[in-house]
Amino acid sequence: MRSQGLLNKCEGYCRELRQVLRRQEDLEAQAREMYELDHSKDQIMTLLKVGLANLGMWVRDQYFGENYQHCESSKMDLRSHAFAKLPVIGLS
């Protein structure tokens, strides 16, 4: 009696294992090929954006007065009085 119960239990486990293996084979058959993405352009653009933001903050800190120290670069008016007084640097 007890051995019959163990046999039934073992058969149930084997049935479940076969179902899992069949599902795994089906998934492998449906699997699509994966391609590696090239993120180097995204990294370069991110570095350029960060560099441009840092340049904007440096220009604000170096050439604009105390009134502009807490101002965002998008809110700065480049035609302001402080900008007009900057020396002109010529290329020779």
Please sum up the structure shown.
Helices cover 62% and strands 0% of the residues. It is mainly alpha-helical.
* Low-pLDDT stretches: none
| Shape assignment | rod-shaped
Number of helices: 3
Radius of gyration: 34 Å
**Beta-strand percent range:** under 5%
Helix content: 55-70%
Q: How many β strands by DSSP?
A: 0
> Largest sheet at a glance?
none
The chain-level structural class is: mainly alpha
Task: Give helix and strand order, one letter per element, not per position.
Answer: HHH
Look at the structure and give the mean pLDDT: 79
The rounded distance between the terminal residues' Cα atoms is: 103 Å
Note down, in words, how this protein is organized.
- The protein is mostly helical.
- The protein is 62% helix and 0% strand.
- It is rod-shaped.
- The model has no long low-confidence stretch (mean pLDDT 79).
